[in-house]
Each structure stands twice: as C-alpha cells, then as structure tokens.
Amino acid sequence: xxxxxxxxxxxxxxxxxxxxxxxxxxxxxxxxxxxxxxxxxxxxxxxxxxxxxxxxxxxxxxxxxxxxxxxxxxxxxxxxxxxxxxxxxxxxxxxxxxxxxxxxxxxxxxxxxxxxxxxxxxxxxxxxxxxxxxxxxxxxxxxxxxxxxxxxxxxxxxxxxxxxxxxxxxxxxxxxxxxxxxxxxxxxxxxxxxxxxxxxxxxxxxxxxxxxxxxxxxxxxxxxxxxxxxxxxxxxxxxxxxxxxxxxxxxxxxxxxxxxxxxxxxx
Length: 267
Fold this sequence. Notes:
By secondary structure, this protein is mainly alpha-helical. Among the domains are: about 40-120, Cytochrome c-like domain (Cytochrome Bc1 Complex, Chain D, domain 2, Orthogonal Bundle), CATH 1.10.760.10; about 135-220, Cytochrome Bc1 Complex, Chain D, domain 2 (Orthogonal Bundle). It has helices at about 1-5, 15-30, 35-60, 60-65, 80-90, 110-120, 135, 145-155, 160, 185-195, 210-220, 235-265; strands spanning about 170, 175. The protein has a two-stranded antiparallel ribbon with strand order 1-2. Helix 3 crosses helix 6 (about 110-120), helix 5 (about 80-90) packs antiparallel against helix 6 (about 110-120) and helix 5 (about 80-90) crosses helix 10 (about 185-195). It comes from Propioniferax innocua. Its main location: membrane.
C-alpha cells in the first residue's frame, strides 16, 4: 500500500504536462510556419510610409495632404499605382508650372522613391496596379503577331499618334506625344490608365497579349534602320503631297514668273 502511494502523481503534473505540450506545439509551428508573409507585409508598410512622406513634401501642395485633390490638381484616390508610376517615371509629374499638358522630361526621383510613391497612392483605393514584366514583355511573339499588333495600333491609336507612333497635334493646345524610345512598361500603363486626354483601354478593350503585340510593333519601328534622305516628318502621303505642292508646283510658278518677266523685258 505504501508502495502504491509513493507512485501517485503530483496534483500539478497534469496541468504542467498540458502547458508543456502547448509550448512544444507553438515552438514546432514557429519552426515550420513561413516567415515570408509577415516580412513582406512589413516591407510594404515601410514602403507606403516612405511614399506618404515623399508625397507630403512633393505632391500635397497640388493634390492635397490626403490626395483628395485641390483646385491645382485632381484627386488621386483610386487612380492606382500604375498611374503614379507612369506620371513620375516619365517626369511628367511633378509639373514645373501649370500647362495644357505635362511634357515628358527626366524624372527627379529614384526608382525606390517612385515605387514608394506608387505604393502609397495605390493604398488609398483600388486602381490599376503597376504591371508585372510578363504583361508587357514582347519576347516570344512571332512576326505575324507583331504585324497584327501594327493593325491593332493603326485601328485604335494612329488617329492621334500617327501610324508610325510619331505623335500629332490635338485640339486646345494638346498633343499626342511620340512613342519612340518609350519603355514598354510605360506604354502598357498609358493604355490602361489613360493619362491626360488619352482614353482608357481596359482588359475588355485590349487583352494583355494584344497590348504586348502593339508594344512589339512600336519597338519594331524603332529598330528600323534609317535609309537616308528626308522623312518629311514621317506623316505619310499627306505630308509628302504637301511638300510636292510647295516645292514642285511652287517651284514651277517661280520659274514661270521668271520666264514671263524675261519675255516682257525682251519686248
């Protein structure tokens, strides 16, 4: 009887074993659980905070402290990170002075700062996100697909940008900028967000593959060698016909006038 009594467990043994088991389960979970998610969330939060600081110093005077918009600039709530990436990466924003249209110029921000600004504005509301490389990468497209991209471009874009992407004039002092030497990412973003007077081309209008084919067509034009001579602005038969009239017919009129004056003097 004394032997059995000495083998009896302590009253706290069962609770201690339960606590120990819970502790071991927690340690095991920490050992196998992925840590990337929390670190990624921390990095995004840090980036958004940095972007808010940059926005306050560089953008709030026109767009408002909370990006709600002012008389000097529109609201940026819901425009998405792609819009900010396009405007700031191409130097269009910040604007040096009010104008009908913001011109492309060298940017004053680093890639890290642009990403932070885009992340901050993107956190203010749903919008078009900065695209992934595979959405605008033209690798793997066939010659037929590049040619199809040219057809899509001429149908949807050439009325403003010219069939060769050289740009053109628009009403009210605005213009469609040339598309030469433009990064593929910026072409994709411009199509999706519709900066300034440009219309928005959503996924329902143009799929990602069709956008890639358009980009491939424009890059193919960029790569064409210069065969020499004057391109007359690259505006096609209209521009060439204009110069033919000015130089050809105008030259004939000058020569005819000169001949007539020489004949009058002879008399």
